[in-house]
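Support request from a user on the community tier.

User writes: "When I paste my C-alpha cells into the form, the page sometimes reloads and wipes my input. The last time it worked, I copied everything first. Here is what I submitted, just in case something in the input itself triggers the reload:"
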C-alpha cells in the first residue's frame, strides 16, 4: 500500500484534538482516522463527542478540556508523556483559530500534536 500524503482535512482532526492526517498509522493505511475508526468504541472521548454531537472536545460546554476526566485518563497521560503531546494546547488552538486553521497548521508542520513544553 502506498503511503498517503499529509493534507489539510478537518475530517482528520480527532475528537481529542490530535491530527490523524499526520499520524504514522493513518499515513500507512493502518487506521482510518479517529472519526471513521469503528473499532475505537472503547474510546470514551470519542463516544462522548459522538453522543453530544461535537466535532471535538473544543466544542464542549460541560467542562474545560484540562478538567475532563475522560480526556485526561491514564492512557491519555501515558500518551502525553511518551509523545510529549499537549492535546489541551491543540484543543485551545482549535477553539481560538478554528478547525481549518488547525488542520492547516498541523499539515504545514507535519505534526499530529503540539508538543508539551
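"...and here is what came back when it finally went through:"
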Amino acid at each position: 500500500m502506498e503511503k498517503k500524503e499529509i493534507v489539510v482535512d478537518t475530517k482528520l482532526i480527532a475528537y481529542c484534538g490530535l491530527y490523524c492526517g499526520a499520524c504514522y498509522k493513518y499515513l500507512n493505511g493502518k487506521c482510518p482516522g479517529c472519526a471513521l475508526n469503528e473499532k475505537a468504541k472503547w474510546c470514551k472521548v470519542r463516544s462522548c463527542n459522538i453522543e453530544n454531537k461535537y466535532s471535538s472536545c473544543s466544542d464542549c460546554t460541560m467542562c474545560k478540556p484540562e478538567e475532563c476526566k475522560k480526556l485526561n485518563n491514564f492512557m491519555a497521560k501515558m500518551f502525553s508523556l511518551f509523545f510529549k503531546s499537549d492535546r489541551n494546547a491543540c484543543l485551545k488552538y482549535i477553539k481560538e483559530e478554528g478547525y481549518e486553521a488547525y488542520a492547516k497548521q498541523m499539515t504545514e508542520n507535519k505534526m499530529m500534536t503540539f508538543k508539551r513544553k
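Agent notes: The reload is a front-end session timeout and is unrelated to the input. The chain has a mean pLDDT of 92. Residues 87-97 form the longest helix (11 residues). Escalated to web team.
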